[in-house]
Amino acid sequence: MMYILAPSLLAADFNILGQQILETQRAGAEYLHIDVMDGIFVPSISFGMPLIKSIRGTSRQFFDVHLMIMNPEKYIKEFVECGADGITFHLEAADCAEKVIEDIHASGAEAGISIKPGTPVEAVYPYLDKIEMVLIMSVEPGFGGQTFMPKSYERIRQLRNYIDERKLPVKIEVDGGVGKKNVREIIDAGANVLVAGSAVFKKRSISDNTSQFMAAFKE
Ligand code: DX5
Ligand code: ZN
User: Fold this and answer.
1) Which single residue of 7, 11, 68, 199 could bond 24 by disulfide (Cβ 3.0 to 4.6 Å)?
2) What are the binding positions for substrate in this chain (predicted)?
3) For ligand 1, is residue 72 a contact (CB within 6 Å)?
4) By C-alpha distance, which of 15, 10, 21 is closest to 56?
């Protein structure tokens, strides 16, 4: 299996954002995870279209936009125009997931569905033949720097088995509390796209942190 690291911008230093993004790209991170929060679906507010638009000129990475917002359908086209390559919305925030998926595809991006830790994995089954990715939240969405919930391993395994039994080409992304200590277990459970915020941006050098993930993927 191919593994992808998606550094989460939320943990970056916005004074030198462009530089930090390039550092992750040079060290091998193929995705950039971009958390959009509206203060309603989640308690906090992060950033939106203008930021994505300005970093689009800096990075060649796949822009993996994670919408933690209500009414995601309203903003799909605009996010894609700003540079999103993939849009993941929350199943809990969509009135009609089917329609959101259609809109994402019509805009030319890959579609992903995310579920919070309390939402049963089975809830995404009806959409698996229509999407490119499922994002399993391993913390309550809203903030970086939280601790990975161990029950997520079983949720990843359950989804991995279901997807493999049906030979579906759907990626499994995991987000929240991912670090060097649990990367191996998360991969072994069946995830192939790993989001990491604090573990990439908050300690020592971004290049070293990114390279260590790359090395762990090859073990
Ligand atoms: C949380 C966000 C995450 C967050 C992860 O709601 O979706 O992407 O930035 O941060 P860490 O890796 O620090 O848990
Ligand atoms: Zn996220």
Assistant:
1) 7
2) 8, 66, 142-145, 175-177, 197-198
3) no
4) 21
Which helix or strand (DSSP H or E) is residue 199 part of?
helix 198-201
DSSP code string of 132-191 = SEEEEESS-TT-SSPPPPTHHHHHHHHHHHHHHHTT---EEEEESS--TTTHHHHHHHT-
Q: Return the CATH number at 14.
A: 3.20.20.70
| Confidence label for 1 from pLDDT (cuts 50, 70 and 90) | confident
Count of domains forming the chain: 1
Q: 86 CB less than 6 Å from ligand 1?
A: no
Residue 210 clears pLDDT 90, i.e. is over it: yes
Q: What are phi and psi of 110, to 5 degrees?
A: -80, 150
- Provide the 3-class DSSP secondary structure of residue 121: helix
User: What token pair was written down for 159?
Assistant: 């989804």
Positions marked catalytic: 35, 175
Index of the ligand 1 atom closest to the CA of residue 146: 14
Residues 6 or more apart whose CB falls under 8 angstroms from that of 16 comprise none
Count of all residues that appear for the chain in the document: 219
Burial of 161 from C-beta contacts in 10 A (0-12 / 13-18 / 19+): exposed
